[in-house]
Amino acid sequence: MDSIKLMMEEHQYILRMLAVVRKACYGILKGEEINYEDFDQMIDFIRSYADAHHHGKEEKILFHEMVTHLGALGNKLITHGMLVEHDSGRLFIQELREALARVKGGEEESRLDVIANAVSYTHLLKRHIEKEDTVVYTFAQRQLSPDIINQVNQDTAEFEKAALEKDTKNYYEQLVIKMEKKYR
């Protein structure tokens, strides 16, 4: 298993869902009613696939090895860069959930917060993914020893095995396709 290639493939599904989130926000901007069920599914994808599944692999496996084996530069790149952005994304999603609840409770002005947090999340993740694909992952491939890369690949295979048992990837990748059809 090539874990970095797999993570880059997962980025494509995440980017596709980000486009769906943006389209849903555009609908709100045009005055359409918020489809709470759809937003619940988008947030579920973000929390379960993008964060728990994808970021889980990065944080527990690849980033851990980078911090452990790549000295001050690896530590700075991961701890003060990638992990901070992961946490910022989590905050945007928490704020999005809270804004949706306020709108559902009758606070119309919070529609602005729905759009602001959702779109801010999409902007953050697009830039974050570009950095990982062009800088972080290539840095890891160049700087980590073949033994460490092999360990990352083995650990990723184990992580994926557990996800396969839960059908995580298939479920969420199919959800992206379903949502894309709705938000063209």
SSE succession: HHHHHH
In whole angstroms, the N-to-C terminal distance is: 34 Å
- Low-confidence runs (pLDDT<50, min 5 residues)? none
Mean residue pLDDT: 97
Percent in strands: under 5%
Number of helices: 6
Share of residues in helices: over 70%
Radius of gyration (Å)? 17 Å
Q: Please identify the structural class as seen in this structure.
A: mainly alpha
Largest sheet: none
Number of distinct beta strands: 0
Specify the overall morphology: elongated
Task: Give an overview of the whole structure.
- The chain is mainly α.
- It is 89% helix and 0% strand.
- It has helices at 3-29, 36-69, 71-104, 111-143, 146-166, 168-182.
- Helix 1 (3-29) runs parallel beside helix 6, helix 2 (36-69) packs across helix 6 and helix 3 (71-104) packs antiparallel against helix 4 (111-143).
- The longest helix is centred in the N-terminal third of the chain and has 34 residues, at 36-69.
How is this structure best summarized?
With 184 residues, this protein is mainly α. The protein has helices at 3-29, 36-69, 71-104, 111-143, 146-166, 168-182.
Topology (SSEs and partners):
Layout: H1 3-29, H2 36-69, H3 71-104, H4 111-143, H5 146-166, H6 168-182
Helix pairs in contact: 1-2, 1-4, 1-6, 2-3, 2-5, 2-6, 3-4
